[in-house]
Amino acid sequence: MVLAVTAEAEVREILKGLRYANRRLAAHDKGDPARINAWILAVGNVATAPRWQQAVQPAVRAHARLVVLRAM
Q1: How far is CA 4 from the centre of its chain?
Q2: N or C: which end of the chain has fewer CB within 10 A?
Q3: How high is the mean pLDDT of the chain?
Q4: What pLDDT, in 10s, does the model give residues 32-52?
Q5: Within 13 Å and on the Cβ side, how many CA atoms surround 20?
Q6: Chain segment 8-31, per-residue pLDDT in tens
Q7: Rounded CA gap, 8 and 38, in Å?
Q8: Which of 43, 62, 58, 48 is nearest to 8 (CA)?
């Protein structure tokens, strides 16, 4: 995940992780564990220490989906 300059850019980056998790879950494909762990760490950091409030809800949702994907 790239360090975003604006709230909108940060949300866009978070949604990339959410799309990745949703695609892998829909395909019943576990995906790359290193990539999943990197996404979990990145969106977890946004959820716990947000620079913009708009990013919290998408980060929490993406984090939950990525954790489900890692547990597959």
Answers
A1: 14
A2: C
A3: 90
A4: 999 999 999 999 988 888 888
A5: 24
A6: 998 999 999 999 999 999 999 988
A7: 21
A8: 58
